[in-house]
Protein backbone atom coordinates (compact mmCIF):
# COMPACT_ATOMS: atom_id res chain seq x y z
CA UNK A 1 0.00 0.00 0.00
CA UNK A 2 1.25 3.50 -0.75
CA UNK A 3 2.59 4.91 2.52
CA UNK A 4 0.44 8.05 2.72
CA UNK A 5 -3.08 7.73 1.46
CA UNK A 6 -4.13 11.22 0.40
CA UNK A 7 -7.73 11.78 1.33
CA UNK A 8 -9.43 15.12 0.80
CA UNK A 9 -11.34 15.45 4.03
CA UNK A 10 -13.98 17.90 5.12
CA UNK A 11 -14.98 16.60 8.48
CA UNK A 12 -18.21 18.38 9.33
CA UNK A 13 -17.35 18.57 13.02
CA UNK A 14 -16.65 14.85 13.22
CA UNK A 15 -13.25 14.83 14.79
CA UNK A 16 -13.35 14.62 18.58
CA UNK A 17 -13.59 18.22 19.59
CA UNK A 18 -13.70 18.19 22.56
CA UNK A 19 -16.11 15.32 23.16
CA UNK A 20 -16.35 12.12 21.12
CA UNK A 21 -19.00 11.52 18.51
CA UNK A 22 -21.60 9.11 19.97
CA UNK A 23 -23.82 7.03 17.70
CA UNK A 24 -26.37 4.74 19.35
CA UNK A 25 -29.34 2.75 18.14
CA UNK A 26 -30.53 -0.73 17.37
CA UNK A 27 -28.68 -3.22 15.22
CA UNK A 28 -31.80 -3.34 13.03
CA UNK A 29 -34.82 -1.12 12.63
CA UNK A 30 -37.50 -3.73 13.31
CA UNK A 31 -40.65 -1.62 13.28
CA UNK A 32 -41.60 2.04 13.55
CA UNK A 33 -42.69 1.48 17.12
CA UNK A 34 -39.42 -0.24 18.12
CA UNK A 35 -37.28 2.51 16.57
CA UNK A 36 -39.37 5.38 18.03
CA UNK A 37 -39.30 3.86 21.51
CA UNK A 38 -35.55 3.21 21.32
CA UNK A 39 -34.68 6.66 19.94
CA UNK A 40 -36.98 8.37 22.47
CA UNK A 41 -35.35 6.57 25.40
CA UNK A 42 -31.81 7.12 24.07
CA UNK A 43 -32.33 10.87 23.72
CA UNK A 44 -34.24 11.19 26.95
CA UNK A 45 -31.65 11.89 29.61
CA UNK A 46 -28.65 12.35 27.36
CA UNK A 47 -27.50 15.36 25.40
CA UNK A 48 -24.33 13.70 24.15
CA UNK A 49 -25.83 11.58 21.37
CA UNK A 50 -24.85 12.86 17.94
CA UNK A 51 -26.62 10.35 15.72
CA UNK A 52 -28.79 7.24 15.69
CA UNK A 53 -27.87 4.01 13.92
CA UNK A 54 -30.36 1.45 12.57
CA UNK A 55 -29.84 -1.11 9.82
CA UNK A 56 -32.60 -1.93 7.35
CA UNK A 57 -30.61 -4.02 4.87
CA UNK A 58 -28.93 -6.58 7.08
CA UNK A 59 -25.97 -8.54 5.70
CA UNK A 60 -26.53 -11.87 7.46
CA UNK A 61 -23.69 -14.36 7.12
CA UNK A 62 -26.14 -17.20 6.44
CA UNK A 63 -29.67 -17.05 5.02
CA UNK A 64 -32.74 -17.82 7.06
CA UNK A 65 -32.37 -14.99 9.60
CA UNK A 66 -34.03 -11.58 9.80
CA UNK A 67 -32.62 -9.69 6.80
CA UNK A 68 -34.05 -6.29 7.67
CA UNK A 69 -37.22 -4.48 6.69
CA UNK A 70 -35.64 -2.91 3.64
CA UNK A 71 -37.04 0.03 1.67
CA UNK A 72 -40.50 0.22 3.33
CA UNK A 73 -38.74 1.43 6.53
CA UNK A 74 -37.22 4.48 4.82
CA UNK A 75 -40.37 6.60 5.02
CA UNK A 76 -40.99 6.23 8.73
CA UNK A 77 -37.28 6.48 9.48
CA UNK A 78 -37.26 9.82 7.71
CA UNK A 79 -40.20 10.91 9.90
CA UNK A 80 -38.33 9.80 13.03
CA UNK A 81 -35.22 11.79 11.99
CA UNK A 82 -37.40 14.88 11.63
CA UNK A 83 -39.47 14.36 14.77
CA UNK A 84 -36.42 13.91 16.99
CA UNK A 85 -34.22 16.27 14.98
CA UNK A 86 -31.34 13.82 14.84
CA UNK A 87 -29.62 12.14 11.89
CA UNK A 88 -30.13 8.41 11.42
CA UNK A 89 -27.33 6.39 9.87
CA UNK A 90 -28.02 3.21 7.97
CA UNK A 91 -26.00 0.61 6.09
CA UNK A 92 -25.88 0.44 2.31
CA UNK A 93 -24.54 -2.49 0.33
CA UNK A 94 -25.84 -1.96 -3.21
CA UNK A 95 -26.34 1.02 -5.51
CA UNK A 96 -30.11 0.62 -5.12
CA UNK A 97 -29.75 1.01 -1.35
CA UNK A 98 -27.75 4.22 -1.87
CA UNK A 99 -30.25 5.68 -4.34
CA UNK A 100 -33.23 4.91 -2.12
CA UNK A 101 -31.59 6.18 1.08
CA UNK A 102 -30.51 9.44 -0.61
CA UNK A 103 -34.00 9.91 -2.08
CA UNK A 104 -35.40 9.71 1.47
CA UNK A 105 -33.06 12.40 2.77
CA UNK A 106 -30.45 10.26 4.51
CA UNK A 107 -27.22 12.21 4.85
CA UNK A 108 -25.17 9.63 6.73
CA UNK A 109 -24.57 6.11 5.46
CA UNK A 110 -22.22 3.31 6.41
CA UNK A 111 -20.62 0.51 4.46
CA UNK A 112 -20.45 -2.82 6.29
CA UNK A 113 -17.47 -5.09 6.88
CA UNK A 114 -18.72 -7.60 4.32
CA UNK A 115 -18.84 -4.91 1.63
CA UNK A 116 -15.52 -3.18 2.35
CA UNK A 117 -13.73 -6.42 1.41
CA UNK A 118 -14.79 -6.12 -2.24
CA UNK A 119 -13.35 -3.33 -4.40
CA UNK A 120 -15.98 -4.00 -7.13
CA UNK A 121 -18.86 -3.29 -4.71
CA UNK A 122 -17.07 -0.30 -3.22
CA UNK A 123 -16.43 1.18 -6.67
CA UNK A 124 -20.10 0.80 -7.63
CA UNK A 125 -21.23 2.37 -4.36
CA UNK A 126 -18.76 5.22 -4.86
CA UNK A 127 -20.35 6.02 -8.24
CA UNK A 128 -23.77 6.03 -6.55
CA UNK A 129 -22.51 8.55 -3.93
CA UNK A 130 -21.08 10.88 -6.59
CA UNK A 131 -22.54 14.40 -6.30
CA UNK A 132 -24.54 13.67 -3.12
CA UNK A 133 -24.32 15.65 0.09
CA UNK A 134 -23.48 12.64 2.22
CA UNK A 135 -21.15 11.48 4.96
CA UNK A 136 -19.91 7.94 4.46
CA UNK A 137 -18.56 5.79 7.28
CA UNK A 138 -16.53 2.79 6.25
CA UNK A 139 -16.31 -0.25 8.49
CA UNK A 140 -13.07 -2.20 8.45
CA UNK A 141 -13.09 -5.30 6.22
CA UNK A 142 -13.69 -8.61 7.99
CA UNK A 143 -10.06 -9.66 7.76
CA UNK A 144 -7.18 -7.49 8.94
CA UNK A 145 -6.21 -5.82 5.67
CA UNK A 146 -5.53 -2.15 6.18
CA UNK A 147 -5.03 -1.69 2.42
CA UNK A 148 -8.63 -2.69 1.66
CA UNK A 149 -9.96 -0.40 4.41
CA UNK A 150 -7.98 2.61 3.18
CA UNK A 151 -8.60 1.63 -0.45
CA UNK A 152 -12.37 1.74 0.09
CA UNK A 153 -12.10 5.26 1.53
CA UNK A 154 -9.85 6.34 -1.35
CA UNK A 155 -12.41 5.11 -3.91
CA UNK A 156 -15.28 6.92 -2.17
CA UNK A 157 -13.16 10.03 -1.79
CA UNK A 158 -12.21 9.94 -5.48
CA UNK A 159 -15.96 10.06 -6.25
CA UNK A 160 -16.09 13.45 -4.50
CA UNK A 161 -17.20 12.45 -1.00
CA UNK A 162 -15.06 14.45 1.41
CA UNK A 163 -16.97 13.74 4.59
CA UNK A 164 -15.60 10.36 5.58
CA UNK A 165 -15.01 8.40 8.76
CA UNK A 166 -13.72 4.94 9.52
CA UNK A 167 -15.54 2.53 11.82
CA UNK A 168 -13.39 0.04 13.68
CA UNK A 169 -15.50 -3.08 14.36
CA UNK A 170 -12.77 -5.66 14.86
CA UNK A 171 -11.62 -8.54 12.68
CA UNK A 172 -12.66 -12.14 12.17
CA UNK A 173 -11.03 -14.53 14.58
CA UNK A 174 -11.54 -18.24 15.16
CA UNK A 175 -11.07 -17.56 18.87
CA UNK A 176 -14.38 -16.04 19.99
CA UNK A 177 -14.10 -17.00 23.62
CA UNK A 178 -13.84 -13.40 24.77
CA UNK A 179 -14.47 -11.07 21.86
CA UNK A 180 -16.68 -11.81 18.86
CA UNK A 181 -14.19 -9.97 16.64
CA UNK A 182 -10.53 -9.46 17.44
CA UNK A 183 -10.05 -5.70 17.96
CA UNK A 184 -6.45 -5.64 16.70
CA UNK A 185 -6.15 -2.12 18.06
CA UNK A 186 -2.76 -1.81 16.38
CA UNK A 187 -4.49 -1.65 12.98
CA UNK A 188 -6.77 1.20 14.04
CA UNK A 189 -3.69 2.98 15.40
CA UNK A 190 -1.80 2.39 12.16
CA UNK A 191 -4.73 3.93 10.28
CA UNK A 192 -4.64 6.92 12.64
CA UNK A 193 -0.94 7.25 11.97
CA UNK A 194 -1.33 7.07 8.17
CA UNK A 195 -4.35 9.37 7.91
CA UNK A 196 -4.19 11.58 11.02
CA UNK A 197 -7.18 13.72 10.02
CA UNK A 198 -9.56 10.84 9.45
CA UNK A 199 -12.03 10.34 12.32
CA UNK A 200 -12.12 6.78 13.65
CA UNK A 201 -15.23 5.60 15.42
CA UNK A 202 -15.05 2.43 17.48
CA UNK A 203 -17.91 -0.08 17.31
CA UNK A 204 -17.56 -1.88 20.67
CA UNK A 205 -20.76 -3.87 20.08
CA UNK A 206 -19.44 -5.86 17.11
CA UNK A 207 -16.00 -6.17 18.70
CA UNK A 208 -17.40 -7.52 21.99
CA UNK A 209 -20.38 -9.50 20.77
CA UNK A 210 -21.49 -9.66 24.39
CA UNK A 211 -22.80 -6.96 26.68
CA UNK A 212 -20.27 -7.59 29.41
CA UNK A 213 -17.26 -6.45 27.37
CA UNK A 214 -18.75 -3.27 25.93
CA UNK A 215 -17.71 -0.89 28.70
CA UNK A 216 -14.06 -2.01 28.72
CA UNK A 217 -13.91 -1.85 24.91
CA UNK A 218 -15.31 1.71 24.93
CA UNK A 219 -12.79 2.72 27.57
CA UNK A 220 -9.91 1.26 25.54
CA UNK A 221 -11.16 3.21 22.51
CA UNK A 222 -11.16 6.42 24.58
CA UNK A 223 -7.74 5.62 26.02
CA UNK A 224 -6.42 5.23 22.46
CA UNK A 225 -7.89 8.62 21.56
CA UNK A 226 -10.50 7.35 19.09
CA UNK A 227 -12.96 9.98 17.86
CA UNK A 228 -16.22 8.34 18.75
CA UNK A 229 -18.31 5.26 19.51
CA UNK A 230 -21.11 3.40 17.76
CA UNK A 231 -23.06 1.40 20.36
CA UNK A 232 -25.95 -0.94 19.55
CA UNK A 233 -28.87 -0.01 21.78
CA UNK A 234 -32.38 -1.47 21.83
CA UNK A 235 -35.29 -0.69 24.17
CA UNK A 236 -35.73 -4.43 24.73
CA UNK A 237 -32.50 -6.25 23.72
CA UNK A 238 -33.64 -9.79 24.50
CA UNK A 239 -36.46 -9.36 21.96
CA UNK A 240 -34.07 -8.03 19.26
CA UNK A 241 -34.27 -9.73 15.85
CA UNK A 242 -30.51 -9.45 15.28
CA UNK A 243 -27.47 -9.26 17.56
CA UNK A 244 -29.60 -9.66 20.71
CA UNK A 245 -26.61 -10.67 22.86
CA UNK A 246 -24.64 -7.50 22.27
CA UNK A 247 -27.34 -4.81 22.46
CA UNK A 248 -27.78 -2.76 25.62
CA UNK A 249 -30.79 -0.79 26.86
CA UNK A 250 -30.89 3.02 26.65
CA UNK A 251 -30.57 3.09 30.44
CA UNK A 252 -27.45 0.92 30.30
CA UNK A 253 -26.12 3.21 27.56
CA UNK A 254 -26.52 6.30 29.75
CA UNK A 255 -24.89 4.51 32.66
CA UNK A 256 -21.98 3.41 30.45
CA UNK A 257 -21.45 6.90 29.03
CA UNK A 258 -21.36 8.28 32.59
CA UNK A 259 -18.74 5.73 33.61
CA UNK A 260 -16.36 6.37 30.72
CA UNK A 261 -13.29 8.39 31.53
CA UNK A 262 -12.27 10.82 28.81
CA UNK A 263 -8.54 11.43 28.89
CA UNK A 264 -6.57 14.28 27.38
CA UNK A 265 -4.14 13.58 24.59
CA UNK A 266 -1.65 16.23 25.78
CA UNK A 267 -0.65 17.50 29.24
CA UNK A 268 -1.11 21.19 29.96
CA UNK A 269 1.11 21.33 33.06
CA UNK A 270 4.85 21.65 32.09
CA UNK A 271 6.01 20.02 35.37
CA UNK A 272 3.92 16.93 34.66
CA UNK A 273 5.30 16.96 31.14
CA UNK A 274 8.81 16.79 32.61
CA UNK A 275 8.00 13.76 34.76
CA UNK A 276 6.50 12.01 31.73
CA UNK A 277 9.64 12.86 29.74
CA UNK A 278 11.92 11.41 32.40
CA UNK A 279 9.90 8.17 32.54
CA UNK A 280 10.21 8.01 28.77
CA UNK A 281 13.99 8.31 29.09
CA UNK A 282 13.85 5.26 31.40
CA UNK A 283 11.92 3.33 28.76
CA UNK A 284 14.47 4.38 26.12
CA UNK A 285 17.26 2.93 28.28
CA UNK A 286 15.34 -0.30 28.88
CA UNK A 287 14.69 -0.68 25.16
CA UNK A 288 18.37 -0.18 24.43
CA UNK A 289 19.24 -2.94 26.91
CA UNK A 290 16.59 -5.14 25.28
CA UNK A 291 18.12 -4.53 21.83
CA UNK A 292 21.59 -5.42 23.12
CA UNK A 293 20.24 -8.67 24.54
CA UNK A 294 18.67 -9.38 21.13
CA UNK A 295 22.02 -8.80 19.42
CA UNK A 296 23.65 -11.30 21.77
CA UNK A 297 20.82 -13.78 21.16
CA UNK A 298 21.20 -13.47 17.40
CA UNK A 299 24.97 -14.04 17.64
CA UNK A 300 24.25 -17.32 19.45
CA UNK A 301 21.63 -18.18 16.81
CA UNK A 302 24.34 -17.69 14.12
CA UNK A 303 26.77 -19.87 16.06
CA UNK A 304 24.17 -22.66 16.28
CA UNK A 305 23.41 -22.14 12.57
CA UNK A 306 27.07 -22.70 11.71
CA UNK A 307 27.16 -25.80 13.88
CA UNK A 308 24.03 -27.20 12.18
CA UNK A 309 25.59 -26.60 8.79
CA UNK A 310 28.84 -28.32 9.72
CA UNK A 311 26.97 -31.31 11.06
CA UNK A 312 24.35 -31.41 8.30
CA UNK A 313 21.48 -30.94 10.77
CA UNK A 314 18.02 -29.57 9.93
CA UNK A 315 17.34 -26.02 11.13
CA UNK A 316 13.95 -26.77 12.60
CA UNK A 317 14.02 -29.17 15.51
CA UNK A 318 10.45 -29.65 16.62
CA UNK A 319 11.14 -30.94 20.15
CA UNK A 320 13.45 -28.02 20.90
CA UNK A 321 10.83 -25.58 19.56
CA UNK A 322 8.07 -26.94 21.81
CA UNK A 323 10.46 -26.88 24.72
CA UNK A 324 11.34 -23.20 24.07
CA UNK A 325 7.72 -22.07 23.79
CA UNK A 326 6.43 -23.93 26.83
CA UNK A 327 9.37 -23.15 29.11
CA UNK A 328 9.39 -19.43 28.19
CA UNK A 329 5.64 -19.19 28.83
CA UNK A 330 6.03 -20.86 32.19
CA UNK A 331 8.97 -18.63 33.13
CA UNK A 332 7.00 -15.53 32.12
CA UNK A 333 4.06 -16.57 34.24
CA UNK A 334 6.34 -17.11 37.23
CA UNK A 335 7.89 -13.68 36.66
CA UNK A 336 4.47 -12.03 36.51
CA UNK A 337 4.45 -11.40 32.76
CA UNK A 338 1.56 -12.22 30.44
CA UNK A 339 2.33 -15.72 28.99
CA UNK A 340 0.43 -14.79 25.82
CA UNK A 341 2.88 -11.94 25.29
CA UNK A 342 5.82 -14.32 25.82
CA UNK A 343 4.26 -16.74 23.35
CA UNK A 344 3.97 -14.01 20.69
CA UNK A 345 7.46 -12.62 21.32
CA UNK A 346 9.15 -16.03 21.14
CA UNK A 347 7.26 -16.99 17.99
CA UNK A 348 8.59 -13.81 16.33
CA UNK A 349 12.13 -14.43 17.62
CA UNK A 350 11.96 -18.00 16.36
CA UNK A 351 10.76 -16.87 12.92
CA UNK A 352 13.75 -14.51 12.54
CA UNK A 353 16.17 -17.05 14.01
CA UNK A 354 15.08 -19.59 11.40
CA UNK A 355 15.49 -16.95 8.67
CA UNK A 356 19.07 -16.24 9.79
CA UNK A 357 19.98 -19.91 10.05
CA UNK A 358 18.47 -20.62 6.61
CA UNK A 359 20.71 -17.90 5.19
CA UNK A 360 23.73 -19.44 6.91
CA UNK A 361 22.86 -22.88 5.57
CA UNK A 362 22.43 -21.55 2.03
CA UNK A 363 25.58 -19.43 2.15
CA UNK A 364 28.03 -21.01 -0.29
CA UNK A 365 30.92 -18.62 0.39
CA UNK A 366 32.71 -21.05 2.68
CA UNK A 367 32.29 -23.97 0.30
CA UNK A 368 34.88 -25.06 -2.29
CA UNK A 369 33.81 -25.14 -5.95
C1 LIG B 1 -24.03 -3.84 11.88
O1 LIG B 1 -23.49 -2.76 12.15
O2 LIG B 1 -25.11 -4.21 12.35
C2 LIG B 1 -23.28 -4.79 11.01
C3 LIG B 1 -23.87 -5.71 10.27
O3 LIG B 1 -21.99 -4.62 11.12
P1 LIG B 1 -20.66 -5.28 10.47
O4 LIG B 1 -20.65 -4.89 9.04
O5 LIG B 1 -19.61 -4.64 11.29
O6 LIG B 1 -20.75 -6.76 10.70
MN1 LIG C 1 -25.39 -5.62 14.47
Structure report:
The chain has 369 residues and is of the alpha/beta class. It is built from 13 helices and 8 strands. The chain has an 8-stranded parallel barrel, surrounded by 5 helices. Strand 3, helix 3 and strand 4 form a beta-alpha-beta unit. Helix 12 packs antiparallel against helix 13. The longest helix is centred in the C-terminal third of the chain and has 41 residues. The structure holds phosphoenolpyruvate and manganese (II) ion.
Number of helices: 13
- Give the overall pLDDT as a whole number: 93
> What shape does the CA trace take?
elongated
Low-confidence stretches: none
Beta strands, count: 8
Instruction: Identify the bound ligands.
Output: phosphoenolpyruvate, manganese (II) ion
* Major β-sheet strand ordering: 1-2-3-4-5-6-7-8
The ordered string of helix (H) and strand (E) elements is EHEHEHEHHEHEHEHHEHHHH
Structural class: alpha/beta
Q: Beta fraction of the residues? A: 5-15%
**Helix coverage percent:** 40-55%
User: What kind of sheet is the major sheet?
Assistant: 8 strands, parallel, barrel
Distance between the termini: 43 Å
CA gyration radius, whole angstroms: 25 Å
Amino acid sequence: MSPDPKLQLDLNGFKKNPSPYIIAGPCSAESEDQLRKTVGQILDGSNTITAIRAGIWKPRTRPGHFEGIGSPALKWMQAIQEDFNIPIITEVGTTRHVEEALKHGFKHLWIGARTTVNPFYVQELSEAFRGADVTVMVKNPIHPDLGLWVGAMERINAAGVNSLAAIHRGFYSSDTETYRNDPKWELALELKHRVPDLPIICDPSHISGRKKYILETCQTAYDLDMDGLMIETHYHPTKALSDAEQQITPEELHDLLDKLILRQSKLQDPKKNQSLDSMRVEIDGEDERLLNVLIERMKTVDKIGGFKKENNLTIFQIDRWYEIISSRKLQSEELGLDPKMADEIFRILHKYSIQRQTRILHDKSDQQD
